[in-house]
Design brief:
single chain, about 425 residues, alpha+beta, Globin-like, Alpha-Beta Plaits, Arc Repressor Mutant, subunit A, five-stranded mixed sheet, two-stranded antiparallel sheet, 17 helices
Length: about 425
């Protein structure tokens, strides 16, 4: 405290600071009793901690408050550091910050309740002044306690995130992850469902006057929170606002996953996309922890095939893109297939018409999707047949044209 002049507050005819100092031990016990009574989380703490650390913090808080009443000055840096360290210990113990802050207010309430009944009529001005000083005390103490708590929580979060990243890296690299998982406090599940995802832009990321980086981080946070909310166990992720990898723990071995399990995962991804406010397309594969590298590669390949073939946003497994996946494998057949569309010369108008016609399955549907006249569709389809020798309207050519489009996407040919 600074050496400010004693304001001379009196309540009940006695100097206030002197009066509180005399009853400090019993006042501390009353505060502790009230905190334990009103805050169940404190009642669950060990008796040794309540009588030791917690009581010490209460007594120090009361001394600081009494000094504030004696001098009119707010707590010193040393006194605030003590309260910060105490808040950090509560963070380590997992006591929520709102509960910690409530305890400080309860302490002040107990002190105030012990004083006001004895106030004399001529001391009303002192009571009002003490009330204003009390609010000033809380104004200084509350941010200090909150900062100490949040600094520790941030450290804990960084440590936890680093430990989880170590586990994720070990799993993706095919290294033994048991030790890293143990150090992170995790248990490796029988199965991981590996998601390789692409996340579309949230409308805010493209809005004028909005910082796209901030909007992207907000989208990513919503995505992570929803994913962790719906998945039992610890989700391991390496995600950016554009997408990435997520490992979802599952208690059922990979080979025993049922249609119901996959259907549930599809619903979860739909909820995640809705919460994030962006389209999500994902490839998925399941494996035991040792098989995560191969599963991740397969999930990424499935994602590439699904996006390359123009599939709509949703969850895809290998079975969903089996033909396109096989057609995308390197080899002479793939290159030969891709060349079947070379006569179109990269004509995007004809290629778009072909893709839409094969997907929609009719000239009128294609015309509506492309906003052109059906006769225009007919003309373009005839041009495709003339140039490639493959007629999109003939059943025996449709499978080959679909394969050629997949091969063209896989090889990057125009």
């Amino acid at each position: 405290m600074t050496g400010d002049k004693d304001p001379g507050f009196r309540i009940g005819g006695r100097p206030l600071a002197e009066r509180l100092t005399e009853v400090l031990p019993s006042l501390a016990r009353t505060v502790l009793s009230e905190i334990v009574s009103r805050i169940p989380e404190y009642g669950l703490l060990p008796a040794e901690e309540l009588s030791g650390d917690i009581t010490q913090v209460i007594e120090q808080n009361l001394r600081s408050f009494i000094d504030t009443l004696r001098t009119g000055a707010t707590p010193t840096r040393e006194e605030l550091d003590f309260l910060r360290e105490s808040a950090a210990r509560r963070a380590e113990e997992g006591i929520p910050i709102d509960i910690v802050l409530t305890a400080y207010h309860i302490g002040i309430q107990v002190v105030w309740a012990s004083l006001t009944p004895d106030a004399l009529p001529e001391e009303v001005s002192d009571v009002l002044a003490v009330n204003a000083l009390t609010l000033r005390y809380l104004e200084v103490v509350t941010p200090a306690v909150g900062a100490g708590y949040l600094d520790e929580r941030q450290t804990m979060f960084d440590d936890e995130r680093s430990a989880r990243h170590t586990v994720l890296s070990a799993l993706l690299d095919g290294e033994p992850a048991d030790v890293a998982a143990g150090q992170a406090g995790l248990r490796l599940p029988p199965c991981y469902i590996v998601l390789a995802a692409t996340v579309g832009a949230h409308p805010d990321e493209e809005a004028n006057g909005v910082d796209p980086m901030v909007a992207g981080r907000r989208k990513l946070r919503r995505l992570r929170v929803e994913l962790e909310r719906q998945i039992r166990g610890t989700v391991l992720t390496s995600l950016t606002p554009e997408g990435g990898i997520a490992l979802l723990p599952h208690e059922t071995p990979a080979e025993e996953l049922s249609t119901r399990d996959w259907a549930r995962l599809e619903r979860i991804l739909t909820d995640v996309a809705r919460t994030a406010g962006a389209e999500v397309i994902a490839g998925a594969a399941a494996a035991e922890p040792a098989g995560v590298p191969a599963a991740a590669k397969l999930a990424q390949d499935v994602l590439a095939v699904a996006t390359g073939s123009g599939r709509p946003p949703r969850l895809y497994r290998l079975d969903d893109v089996l033909l396109e996946y096989q057609l995308s494998r390197p080899g002479p057949a793939l290159d030969r297939l891709a060349t079947r569309l070379e006569p179109l010369g990269g004509n995007e108008e004809l290629l778009q018409t072909l893709e839409t016609f094969l997907r929609r399955g009719g000239r009128r549907q294609t015309a509506a999707a492309l906003h052109v006249h059906p006769n225009t569709v007919d003309y373009r389809l005839r041009r495709i047949a003339d140039l490639t020798g493959l007629d999109p309207t003939r059943l025996e050519h449709i499978a080959l044209l679909n394969a050629a489009l997949s091969a063209r996407s896989a090889t990057g040919k125009n």
